[in-house]
């Protein structure tokens, strides 16, 4: 199989580039445009486009379409079909060509065509299922969508993990898309115990986490240990970490889009048992009669359930107070007219029930449950020109409620919900121009309350309406250049506070380097978000509590710049180096010295800055695949220092807890034969900042009953018996010290065994193979003599196992 | 208006999880701590004994008793009146049993403190050690408060099994109100219900946030911060009102900014509690002011009330 010189045909007469614009580009990129055209002078170029469908009319994505001269085996051009089965190649010189289409699981097709000058020729294909995978097709058909992005997008930085890759990365207990993104460039995690992550110096609440396009606000179980995403339901996870075009909005740091797999309409069971939970997923199609009634050409669906089982297994011995459940469903149908309708639903709960425990052991009865509910509907209509219409609507909410059955004066709850109606229209009026526009409305609502003893200690209800619209254009003036220009307008109308309007210009440019498969790219843009999480990021676990922009908190506005070089140094290898610079305005921190009599000082607005570089080298072919991600980061935050005790508080600038200056991940996956797949992940990170105590002192509490003296907080035993109480700490500069560097090796082995009834995959994963004691916390114990520093580490050597079956 | 406290429950669960999954790190000897002065200056005025005290201590391992004893603690009230506090036995400031735990020196204005400071006064403090270290800060006392329910009495009767919605007037300048009670006689009072009470007296705290939050229900809304520690049966019994035969001193106090900041604390730190100081200089500490009122509540059998000489707690002004 020949490599695909897909850039060979990317050439267009440089003379078509307006001179003024060309000069501007030269200034932006600092390089000269590429060499001249291969096309004939004077004759307008032609183009081909089309859709690749299966026998039932369902679009086939990721099919490889190649263009040859008649009689030649050297591919001139290559393209990959998108989710709607669409491909296009342009510009092309007029004349005869041969078009081949390859896709794993289908018989290859070939067709001779004649491309007329100045015309876009439609060439559609219908592929026939072929069970036998032909050698070579596999490799070509699994080409990463990364390549398509490289060729067609200017600025967006996307890293994608397919389901098999997610399962192949050694991880905690079972495959988890949220945990898997830790190994991508630009991503920092602060704790093994949480799946919260930070991207390029952004806070964790600046990551937009989507399930099939709908936001999920607290996508974790067990306070952050595991995500809500069931690996059997996931088709892929994409992390978009910078250079967002105008169509993206809602968060300023990253977008993690987890996409469900509704299946191809065939009946299939997947099940699994891990140390966390049991899970089962069922996929299938829809019968002909139902399809006719629904006026659908075809449809596929998948439903899954997952539940932890410790509470059930241990029931004969004692009441284990915690369990989690997930239920998820995905549906995808294709209408007779070729439209796609997809539906996503999810509901999940964590339940911590401490009401049935022995009062001797646990005197305070607590009932705490939390979870997400989500329902989304999407309708997509492909356009003949390769563009599409899409309309999305959905509802997503998170709720957490903590109650004490014995004390009805106490209520602790937190919730956020979002309903949206959004639409996009993509047009391709000429072969060199794509225009996308869209808009929508989102309604956000938060409901937080912490009330006890007749006093409301915190909380508040609020709503906000976000209206947005955007317009972006992607222009290929020559085959060497891609220019994306756009703007986004967002208006946020909070129930309390002034309306806010933010205009966000975005521009990206990519320059393919002549004679190579490398490209330079640059992008700049403004991004905004209208909600914040007030969770203390210093705590390693916890749920996000959300507040909206309004009279309590400003909007976050971030201006970002990134420059990069990416390309394919050789077949099967991809490399990327990107530098970034980001400023954040309007980030907030909880004001722990707020005046209860004053509205509007509960949160302190501040600023942030981050810059750094990410290197990513991935090998996609060969017996051993994987990648190396190296991230350099410097981040800081500036806030009024309420701990100073001064009024007004002076501003301090400090490194946030996620300021890991160097972070490296090596991920390898290798087939060992006989169904064995080995996985390796090694992570290294320089130390994270923490605030070192200079000393500690006995924490005394005053009493207000006349004649009382101060007592040692929590230290007064009954009837004069004294026990140890709390200590207060006097702190050095905020986050002025650093924990030691961390590193950890994880290994996994999966063994896939085919049986007459299906397929079974037992697996074993070993975290922290060499039992590195990576520091989670230091405890400075100045009360000991001599004073000691103790601490607690993150995951120790931790083997886990599980099994997956497919019928 | 979400503020804080959300993280604590999560943190407790998290600590349990970390304890199960994490590992203790090897102990490492560290250098001696920095010698920092810690000063806790409280001005408590209102009913009964006014108290003006300053307790000076140090970060652990750096105590220098002689240096602390020789400190000067000077208060300036308004623009003119200057008062020096004098060293007293530490029991003036601390529970007696803590004398061996906390090395420090208590300074006090002594018993003749009446009218030294009054609600609304601005008071500055300057603490200087012989070695030159010093701390400085200031407070403004909240305005006076008085009970609106029960009104005009220092003692009142509460029918058995009923709760008392305490109410008081708004104190200008207060950041919050603390309510505190010490209840005696619970052991005997609850024995009839089959509830065993280990300590005969129980101290419970309540809190009302903001200047305008001027009510709290006694005794049900007291003790919300000790529900983990309090015997569940006792806590439930108090939810239903005050049992017959018990007596309780109930104090309500208007708290200034500094008091509130010092007790509610700052960010999470694994090595100990972070407090927001109001003294600046060579250490940390607080100068806090409190204006308080006290009432004694007796849990009575309802049938005794009509003829009782003790006024009802439900009297309002």
Question: Could you characterize what this model shows?
Answer:
The complex is a heterodimer of chains A (807) and B (317). With 807 residues, chain A is mainly β. Helix content of chain A is 6%, strand content 53%. The longest helix of chain A has 11 residues, at 19-29. Chain B has 317 residues and is mainly beta. Chain B has helices spanning 6-21, 65-69, 186-191, 232-239, 257-264, and strands at residues 28-29, 37-46, 51-58, 72-77, 81-88, 104-108, 122-128, 134-140, 147-149, 155-159, 164-168, 176-184, 202-209, 215-218, 247-255, 280-281, 283-300. In chain B, a hairpin with a 5-residue loop joins strand 7 (122-128) and strand 8. The longest helix of chain B has 16 residues, at 6-21. Mean pLDDT of chain B is 84; it is low at 1-12. The chains are: A mainly beta (807), B mainly beta (317). At the A-B interface, strand 26, strand 27, strand 41, strand 42 and strand 43 of A face helix 1, strand 1, strand 2, strand 3 and strand 12 of B.
Topology:
The complex is a heterodimer of chains A (807) and B (317).
Chain A: H1 19-29, E1 46-53, E2 64-68, E3 77-80, E4 86-92, E5 95-102, E6 109-115, E7 120-122, E8 125-126, H2 137-141, H3 145-152, E9 157-162, H4 163-168, H5 177-180, E10 187-188, E11 198-199, E12 207-211, E13 214-215, E14 220-221, E15 226-227, E16 234-242, E17 254-260, E18 268-273, E19 277-285, H6 288-294, E20 296-308, H7 310-313, E21 322-335, E22 340-353, E23 367-382, E24 388-403, E25 411-430, E26 433-452, E27 455-475, E28 481-494, E29 500-512, E30 518-529, E31 531-533, E32 546-548, E33 556-567, E34 573-590, E35 603-619, E36 624-640, E37 651-654, E38 662-673, E39 676-685, E40 689-690, E41 693-698, E42 700-701, E43 711-712, E44 727-731, E45 737-738, E46 742-751, E47 753-755, E48 758-767, E49 775-781, E50 788-793, E51 798-806
Parallel strand pairs in A: 1-7, 1-8, 12-17
Antiparallel strand pairs in A: 1-4, 2-3, 2-5, 5-6, 9-16, 10-11, 12-13, 14-15, 16-17, 18-19, 18-51, 19-20, 20-21, 21-22, 22-23, 23-24, 24-25, 25-26, 26-27, 27-28, 28-29, 29-30, 30-33, 31-32, 33-34, 34-35, 35-36, 36-37, 36-38, 38-39, 39-46, 40-45, 41-44, 42-43, 46-48, 47-48, 48-51, 49-50
Chain B: H1 6-21, E1 28-29, E2 37-46, E3 51-58, H2 65-69, E4 72-77, E5 81-88, E6 104-108, E7 122-128, E8 134-140, E9 147-149, E10 155-159, E11 164-168, E12 176-184, H3 186-191, E13 202-209, E14 215-218, H4 232-239, E15 247-255, H5 257-264, E16 280-281, E17 283-300
């Amino acid at each position: 199989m020949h490599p695909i010189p897909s850039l060979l045909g990317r050439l267009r007469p440089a003379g078509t580039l307006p001179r003024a614009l060309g000069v501007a580009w030269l200034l932006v990129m600092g390089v000269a445009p590429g060499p001249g055209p291969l096309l004939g002078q004077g004759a307008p170029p032609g183009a081909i486009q089309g859709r690749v469908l299966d026998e039932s009319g369902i679009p086939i994505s990721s099919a490889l379409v190649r263009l040859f001269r008649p009689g030649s085996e050297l591919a001139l051009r290559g393209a990959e079909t998108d989710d709607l089965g669409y491909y296009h190649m342009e510009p092309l010189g007029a004349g005869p060509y041969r078009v081949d289409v390859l896709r794993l699981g289908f018989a290859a097709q070939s067709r001779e065509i004649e491309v007329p000058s100045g015309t876009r020729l439609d060439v559609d294909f219908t592929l026939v299922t072929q069970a036998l995978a032909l050698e070579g097709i596999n490799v070509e058909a699994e080409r990463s969508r990364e390549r398509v992005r490289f060729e067609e997008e200017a600025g967006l930085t996307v890293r994608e993990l397919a389901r098999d890759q997610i399962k192949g990365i050694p991880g905690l207990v079972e495959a988890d898309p949220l945990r898997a993104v830790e190994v991508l460039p630009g991503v920092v995690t602060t704790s093994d115990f949480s799946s919260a992550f930070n991207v390029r110096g952004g806070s964790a609440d600046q990551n937009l986490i989507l399930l099939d396009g709908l936001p999920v606000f607290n996508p974790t179980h067990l306070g952050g240990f595991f995500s809500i995403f069931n690996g059997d339901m996931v088709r892929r996870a994409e992390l978009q970490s910078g250079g967002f075009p105008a169509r993206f909005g809602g968060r300023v740091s990253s977008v993690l889009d987890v996409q469900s797999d509704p299946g191809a309409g065939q009946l299939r069971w997947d099940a699994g048992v891990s140390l966390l939970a049991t899970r089962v997923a069922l996929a299938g199609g829809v019968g002909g009669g139902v399809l006719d009634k629904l006026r659908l050409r075809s449809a596929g669906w998948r439903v899954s359930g997952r539940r932890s089982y410790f509470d059930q297994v241990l029931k004969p011995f004692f009441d284990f107070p915690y369990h989690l459940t997930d239920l998820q469903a995905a549906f995808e149908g294709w209408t007779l007219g070729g439209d796609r309708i997809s539906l996503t639903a999810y509901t999940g709960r964590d339940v911590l029930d401490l009401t049935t425990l022995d009062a001797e052991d646990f005197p305070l009865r607590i009932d705490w449950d939390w979870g997400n509910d989500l329902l989304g509907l999407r309708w997509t209509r492909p356009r003949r020109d390769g563009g599409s219409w899409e309309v999305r609507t959905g509802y997503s909410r998170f709720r957490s409620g903590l109650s004490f059955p014995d004390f009805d004066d106490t209520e602790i709850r937190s919730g956020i919900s979002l309903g949206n109606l959004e639409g996009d229209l993509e047009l391709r009026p000429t072969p060199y121009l794509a225009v996308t526009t869209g808009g929508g409305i989102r309604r956000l609502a938060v409901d937080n309350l912490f009330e006890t003893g007749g006093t409301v200690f915190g909380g508040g209800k609020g709503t906000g309406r976000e209206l947005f619209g955007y317009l972006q254009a992607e222009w290929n003036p020559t085959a060497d250049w891609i220019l994306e220009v756009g703007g986004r307008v967002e208006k946020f109308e909070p129930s309390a506070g002034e309306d806010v309007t933010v205009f966000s210009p975005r521009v990206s440019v990519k320059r393919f380097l002549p004679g190579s498969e490398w490209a330079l790219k640059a992008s700049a843009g403004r991004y905004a978000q209208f909600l914040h999480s007030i969770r203390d990021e210093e705590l390693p676990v916890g749920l996000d509590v959300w507040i909206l922009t309004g009279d309590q908190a400003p909007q976050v506005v971030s201006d970002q710049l990134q420059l990069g070089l990416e390309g394919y140094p050789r077949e099967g290898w991809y490399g990327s180096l990107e530098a970034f610079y980001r400023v954040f305005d309007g980030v907030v921190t909880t004001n722990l010295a707020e005046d209860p009599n004053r509205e509007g000082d509960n949160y302190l607005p501040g600023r942030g800055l981050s810059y750094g570089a990410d290197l990513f080298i991935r090998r996609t072919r060969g017996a051993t695949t994987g990648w190396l991600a190296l991230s350099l980061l410097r981040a800081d935050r500036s806030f009024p220092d309420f701990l100073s005790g001064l009024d007004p508080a002076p501003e301090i600038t400090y490194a946030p807890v996620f300021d890991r200056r160097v972070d490296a991940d090596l991920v390898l996956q290798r087939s060992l034969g006989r169904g064995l797949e080995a996985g390796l992940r090694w992570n290294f990170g320089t130390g994270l900042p923490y605030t070192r105590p200079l000393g500690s002192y006995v924490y005394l509490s005053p009493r207000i009953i006349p004649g009382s003296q101060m007592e040692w907080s929590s230290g007064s035993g009954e009837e004069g018996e004294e026990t140890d109480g709390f200590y207060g700490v006097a702190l050095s500069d905020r986050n002025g010290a650093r924990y030691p560097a961390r590193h950890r090796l994880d290994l996994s082995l999966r063994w896939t065994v085919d049986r007459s009834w299906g397929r079974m995959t037992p697996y074993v994963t070993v975290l922290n193979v060499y039992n590195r004691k990576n520091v989670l916390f230091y405890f400075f114990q100045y009360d000991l003599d001599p004073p000691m520093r103790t601490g607690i580490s993150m995951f120790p050597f931790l083997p886990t196992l599980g099994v997956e079956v497919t019928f | 208006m979400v503020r804080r406290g959300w993280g604590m429950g999560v943190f407790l669960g998290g600590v349990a999880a970390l304890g199960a999954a994490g590992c203790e790190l090897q102990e490492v000897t560290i250098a001696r701590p920095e010698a920092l002065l810690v000063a806790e200056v409280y001005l408590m005025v209102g009913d009964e004994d006014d108290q003006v005290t300053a307790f000076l201590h140090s970060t652990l391992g750096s105590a220098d008793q002689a240096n602390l004893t020789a400190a000067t603690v000077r208060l300036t009230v308004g623009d003119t009146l200057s008062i020096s506090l004098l060293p007293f036995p530490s029991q003036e400031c601390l529970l007696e049993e803590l004398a061996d735990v906390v090395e420090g020196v208590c300074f006090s204005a002594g018993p003749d403190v009446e009218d030294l400071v009054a609600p609304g006064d601005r008071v500055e403090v300057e603490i200087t050690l012989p070695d030159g270290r010093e701390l400085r800060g200031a407070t403004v006392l909240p305005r006076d408060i008085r009970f609106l329910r029960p009104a005009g009495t220092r003692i009142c009767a509460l029918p058995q099994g009923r709760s008392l919605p305490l109410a008081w007037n708004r104190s200008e300048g207060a950041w919050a109100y603390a309510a505190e009670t010490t209840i005696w006689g619970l052991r005997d009072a609850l024995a009839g219900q089959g509830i065993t009470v280990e300590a005969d007296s129980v101290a419970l705290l309540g809190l009302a946030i903001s200047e305008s939050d001027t009510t709290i229900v006694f005794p049900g809304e007291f003790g919300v911060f000790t529900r983990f520690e309090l015997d569940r049966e006792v806590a439930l019994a108090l939810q239903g009102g005050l049992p017959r035969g018990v007596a309780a001193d109930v104090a309500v106090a208007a708290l200034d900014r500094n008091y509130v900041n010092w007790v509610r604390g700052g960010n999470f730190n694994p090595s100990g509690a972070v407090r927001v100081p109001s003294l600046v200089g060579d250490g940390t500490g607080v100068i806090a002011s409190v204006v308080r009122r006290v009432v004694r509540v007796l849990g009575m059998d309802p049938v005794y009330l009509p003829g009782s000489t003790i006024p009802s707690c439900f009297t309002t002004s």
